[in-house]
Design brief:
Chain lengths: 141, 286
């Protein structure tokens, strides 16, 4: 039997693929790499592109990744795939957006956190909850 | 028939409320199951990453990223994960209470805090009580996506790298089981790496393009994945907490209806008795 290498493709939102393969092709940042069993340890960023997994039975599995990280150990290949399209300026824009939202939501707001006010309101809410609990228990008993 | 009609309408309205709460309970139960599945699905990614980072940390001591360096704490950041909607028991309030205690403890030591909120409830909370919210995101829905979180997390990480924050905590509800959700505050940055001691022989990866860039990308993604995981976990907590709360509400409505029914029957009986005695009295008079 031909030598096999284990392939895991995972993203933050779930596992995409897990299984044995004869050969894995991935779009690394400096050009496509092909990984055979007993490859030397390697870590690389991935470009958006296609990952091909040659399962050895003549079947080729295709997965699209929009970037991510590839980790290679002699018998395991791990692809940490991004589900989102990442680019520096895109991330920057997203960050700006998050900031702007916060500013809009809180415009005209004092900068210091008021412990006393918050605490009293929370105490009230908790007391309410506790009362409800007690009423409920009393009814049942 | 004094009040019988009023009681009847009251019973009808409570029955309607009960229908709503029991429907909400069922919806929450099915959403909870899906949220739990999602929670399980996010685990392998973070685990694999932790593995690689642990290795990089060991195999590559000459470069330490700022996310892994401890420094003196002057200002801290909190990423607060909350739900978008209410009617889920004390879930958010319990967490805010724990958070306030923490902020106060830090405040006593002269450490100020900045915030980043995820979810409407946390935003509303800080809107009411002030505090510097650096970034926020709301309306993530039942299926949060990691790209929605990237910007929000980046604001905090950038502040950390610029030295505006010296430590970042994440605050969310940990899912213990359906009945128990535990408000949790965990340190996100600097990363507390659990070094794997099993690597005795020294070997290193080949890096493309170079180790610094790979590690940077990896760490950012790792932190985002952790935040995402908390969001998903908090979502599962929200649903299970809502399920329990709605179950209680339905039960309460049931017992209220029983009581009112009793009062109604008594009133009705009293009215009938009175009528009979009036008739009898009238007949006797004739």
């Amino acid at each position: 039997m031909a030598m096999m290498i284990h392939v895991d493709i995972v993203s933050a939102e779930g596992e995409i693929h897990s299984g044995q393969a004869e050969m894995v092709y991935a779009p690394a940042i400096m050009g496509e790499v092909g990984i055979a069993p007993r490859h030397t340890p390697l870590v690389t960023r991935l470009k958006p592109g296609e990952i091909r997994v040659d399962t050895g039975s003549g079947e080729m599995k295709h997965f699209f990744v929009s970037g991510g990280i590839l980790e290679v150990q002699p018998h395991v290949v791990t692809v940490l795939a991004d589900t989102a399209i990442r680019a520096h300026d895109l991330d920057e824009a997203a960050a700006e957006d998050a900031k702007r939202r916060a500013e809009e939501a809180l415009s005209g707001q004092q900068a210091d956190f008021e412990y006393a006010k918050a605490k009293s309101e929370l105490a009230e809410a908790v007391a309410q909850l506790r009362t409800i609990e007690r009423i409920r228990k009393g009814k049942r008993g | 028939m004094a009040g019988a009609k009023e009681i009847r309408t009251q019973i009808a309205s409570i029955k309607n409320t009960q229908k709503i709460t029991s429907a909400m309970r069922m919806v929450a139960a099915s959403k909870m199951r899906r949220a739990q599945e999602r929670m399980a699905a996010t685990r392998p990614y973070a685990e694999k990453m932790r593995h690689v980072i642990g290795h990089l940390d060991q195999a590559h001591p000459e470069y330490t990223h700022s996310f892994m360096k401890e420094r003196e704490v002057k200002r801290i950041g909190y990423i607060i994960v909350s739900s978008d909607r209410g009617l889920c028991g004390g879930l958010n309030n319990n967490m805010f209470r724990k958070l306030i205690r923490e902020i106060r403890e830090h405040g006593d030591k002269g450490i100020q805090a900045d915030f980043c909120t995820i979810g409407l409830k946390a935003l509303g909370f800080f809107r009411r009580f002030g505090g510097k919210v650096m970034a926020q995101i709301t309306q993530l829905g039942d299926q949060p996506h990691i790209e929605d979180l990237i910007g929000t997390v980046k604001v905090m990480l950038d502040a950390y790298e610029k030295g505006e924050l010296d430590r970042i905590y994440i605050c969310y509800n940990r899912f213990v089981n359906t009945m128990v959700q535990e408000p949790t505050i965990e340190q996100l940055v600097p990363i507390t790496s659990e070094a794997e001691k099993e690597l005795s022989h020294h070997w290193d990866y080949i890096y493309e393009p170079d180790s610094k860039e790979v590690l940077d990308g990896l760490l950012t993604r790792y932190l985002e994945a952790l935040v995402y995981q908390s969001v998903v976990e908090n979502g599962a907590c929200e649903q299970s907490s809502r399920m329990v709360a709605m179950k209680a509400a339905t039960d309460n409505a049931g017992s209220l209806i029983d009581e009112l029914q009793l009062v109604y029957n008594k009133a009705r009986q009293a009215a009938i008795t009175q009528e009979i005695s009036e008739i009898v009295g009238g007949a006797a008079a004739v």
